[in-house]
Amino acid sequence: xxxxxxxxxxxxxxxxxxxxxxxxxxxxxxxxxxxxxxxxxxxxxxxxxxxxxxxxxxxxxxxxxxxxxxxxxxxxxxxxxxxxxxxxxxxxxxxxxxxxxxxxxxxxxxxxxxxxxxxxxxxxxxxxxxxxxxxxxxxxxxxxxxxxxxxxxxxxxxxxxxxxxxxxxxxxxxxxxxxxxxxxxxxxxxxxxxxxxxxxxxxxxxxxxxxxxxxxxxxxxxxxxxxxxxxxxxxxxxxxxxxxxxx
Length: 247
Fold this sequence. Notes:
mainly alpha, 0% strand
C-alpha cells in the first residue's frame, strides 16, 4: 500500500518532467533546424544560418530550415543536399552518445535534477531518430528522403544501418539509464517506477514520433507511425517494474 506522500512525490516528479521536457524540446528543435541551416551556409549555398522558418515549439509543427533543396538538386549538387539533410541526424546521434556516457557515469545520482535533465535530453533526441529512422527511412521527402536521393543510398540500407545504432541506444536507455533513474527517484515506489516507464515510452515512441508522423506526415509512410504504438506497448510489457532485464 502506498501512502498519500508517495503519490504526491509522483505528481511533483511528473510536473518537473513536463516543465523540463518542453524547454528541452524547444532547444532540440532549434538545434535541429540550425544544424541544417549552418551546414548549408558552411557548404556555400548562400543560405544564412538564421534563415530558418520558425514554428510551434510545443506541437513541433511549422518549422523548416529554409534550405532550397530543389534548387540544389537542379544544380546537380546532390551530395551537398544530402549532407545538409542528414546533418541533424548525426547531431542527434552525437548528443545521445554524450548523454548516455554521462548517465552511465559514477556519482551522477547525487545530482538528481541534472541527471533527469540529461535523461530527458537524450529521450528527445531519441524520439527524433525513432521518427526518422524507424518510420521515415522510406519517405521520399524530409531529411531521410533527401539523404537517400542525394547519395543514391537504398532506403532499406539506410534503415538497416540506422536501426542497428538506434536500437543499441534504446537498449542502453531502457536497461541501464531508466532503471538508474527509477532507483534515484523511486527506489521502493512501484507506481513511481511505472510513471518513469510510461513517460519514457510515451516520449520516445509516441509524442515526437508515432503520433507526430501519423498526424503530420503527408506521404504514405505516415502509417509507419503505428510502429510507435507497437513499441510503446511492447516496452510497457517487457520493461515493467520488477521484470526489467538488466544489462
